[in-house]
Amino acid sequence: MTSPATARLFYASPAYWGAVSGTKTIGAAPRRVQLPVCGRQYTGYTGGILITRPACVTLAVSGPGSKAVTVTVPVLVIKC
Asked: N or C: the chain end with fewer CB closer than 10 Å?
């Protein structure tokens, strides 16, 4: 994650996500996650971007054997 500095990522296996989805807190979330891959196929995940206020969140994303690119995601804002 590159910005804003307060943004965090939440990633969990489907089983863990189901276990915590009804709770009021989820614990500390990191600014970086490495998701498991299945060979050269795409892998889905359950997760989200956590923010303290509406923002355009910029992420650095890469896949196996590729260099990172940045993407900007509007979170609780209409457009970035």
From this structure: C
